[in-house]
Every structure is written in structure tokens, then in C-alpha cells.
Amino acid sequence: MSNFFSKAEVTSSGRPVLLRNEVECHLLSAVDLEPEDHRHFSLLKSGLLILTTHRLIWLPSSSASTPTCASAIPLAAISHIFSSKKSLKSVFHSPRIRFQVLVSSTVRVFDPGSGSGSSSGSGSRSVVVTAVIRGKGDCDGFLVKFWDSWRARAWETTETSGSGSASASGSGAATGTGGGLYSSDGSVRMVGVAGILRKEQEMWESTDKNLQDAFQDLNALMSKAKEMVTLAEKMRLKLLSGTSSQTSGTNDEDMGSKEEMQDWLLSVGIISPVTKESAGALYHQQLSRQLADFVRVPLERAGGMINLIDAYCLFNRARGT
């Protein structure tokens, strides 16, 4: 089965290594992946299924008797998601989610990110894959977010400036309609009930405009935050490589300033923090794994020991809490 699905990279704590701008959306435990019409492949049994904005990631259970590699299915390779059908038979069986995947001529899941993406996509065929949920997760909620992530096609989004300009023009049109409630010179003033109603309408439109501006600023801030985290990570790696190549005659003051810069960069943020909404019952397990990945770098820089309150503050600041 490892030859059928794409291989996914994981950290030392068992968390998936996310792609650029990839964010986790939902998790389900104890999930089997069963490709139909491929009986000569072994099945992926009782693993953790993670839905992101770019992929479906299957992680093997830590208690599995046989070692299995982490696997992934790009959402771009999915051609159709079947709707769940409620029947009397489904009451006595584990919930199932069926979707159609493009398979290349080499009998592998079509990966648009590979070098031969166009050729593989042109000669591909479809295979139905069934996800059997044997745990107690929210299958319906997972299916809804599965549809949303697949339709959003976040892997195709490269720039957010276009959407920002479009929303800005939309707010400008709303402002223009709000100004049409009064005459051009402003000399005519309505009194009585009509004046009260128009003043209420003006207040509502002003509130709506302020809300639109606020959400535009929030979206711009979120998009810039991802860029800042990426930039900070590049700066941190550059500083670390510079520190390792320094000679013994380096100025202590320069070393101190670089260490302060590294401490600041460590606390910039985590792009995809684990949340209760996405992890559900697995929140504490996945949060501890993310903490283990995050605290490794400051622990190495501090010589293997760090105050608990310092780790707490650094991690919460990176998560934005």
C-alpha cells in the first residue's frame, strides 16, 4: 500500500510536516483506508486521519503491531466526494466516507506536485477509496469540512492581493449607495417618521461599512502573519547557520545580539496551531505533540534545560493565546 499512496513526512513526535500555507482542519481517530478494486494491496488499518487545506494525511497508530509509513492523498487528486447515505444497514456498520481518486499509469495516487504532473493527470484513471471510521469522531462534521476544503482549492491560491482589491471595491460600492440617501447639496432634510427611518438606515449602513473595513483589515493581518512567520523562520535558520560557522574570535556583544534576535524569532508564531475545533477529542494528545516539536529548538539552544514558565510563555505566544 505504501506504493499506492504518497508518502507523508512526520516529525519526531509523530506530527505531520505541513506544506507551505497548509492548515489542519479536522482529525479522526481509528480510521481505515480501503481502495476499492485493488485487492492485491494491503489496507491501512486503524490510523489517525488528518484533513488539511491541501491533503488527507493518514498517520499509523503508535500501538500498531506492524510498522507502516505515513501516507497522504492530495486534495487535488480527488475528483469526486460521494454523499453519505443514511439507511438501516448503516446503523449497524461503522460510518464510511467514499471519494474518487485519480490514479496514474504507474498505479499510484496522482500527485499534481510531482514533476510529471501533467502527463500523469492526462493518462490517469479513477479509483474509489473508502475511509472507514471505527472511532467515535464526528463523521458528519468531518465530511462537511472535507467538502469545504476540497471546494476551496487552497493549494491553487498563490496570492491574496486580488481578493483584497476585490473586497475593497465591493466596500466602495456600498459606500456609494449609502451616500445616495441624501441630496447632492445636503440642503433638504427630512423630518418626522421619514427622517427617523432614514437616519436609522444611515446608521445601519455606516455600521455595515465599518464591519466590512474591520474584516478586510483582519484578513490582511492574517495573510501578512503567515508571511511574517515564514520570513522569521528563514531569518532564524540564517542566524543559526551563521552562528555555527563563526570562529573563536567572534565578539561577545555580536553573539549576544544574535541570541536575542533568535529568541525573538522563536516567539513569532505557529502557522497551524492545534485547536479544539479541529482536533476534537484528540486535542490534548495533538497539543502535546506540537509542544514537543516546538520546544525542541529552545531546549537545544539552552543546553537541554529551560524554565517551565519560559516554555509556557514562548509556546502560548507562538499559538497566539
From TrEMBL:
Stated name of the protein: Vacuolar protein-sorting-associated protein 36
Q: Which residues belong to any copy of the GLUE N-terminal domain?
A: 8-162
Whom does it interact with, and what assembly results?
Answer: Component of the endosomal sorting complex required for transport II (ESCRT-II).
Where in this protein does the record put region Disordered?
158-178
Gene3D superfamilies from the UniProt entry: 6.10.140.260, Pleckstrin-homology domain (PH domain)/Phosphotyrosine-binding domain (PTB), Winged helix-like DNA-binding domain superfamily/Winged helix DNA-binding domain
Role played:
Component of the ESCRT-II complex (endosomal sorting complex required for transport II), which is required for multivesicular body (MVB) formation and sorting of endosomal cargo proteins into MVBs.
What are the protein's UniProt keywords? Cytoplasm, Endosome, Protein transport, Transport
Compartment(s) where it occurs, according to its Swiss-Prot or TrEMBL record: Cytoplasm; Endosome
**What organism does the UniProt record list as the source?**
Gossypium raimondii (Peruvian cotton)
Per its record, what are the GO molecular function terms?
A: phosphatidylinositol-3-phosphate binding; ubiquitin binding
Q: Give the UniProt family note.
A: Belongs to the VPS36 family.
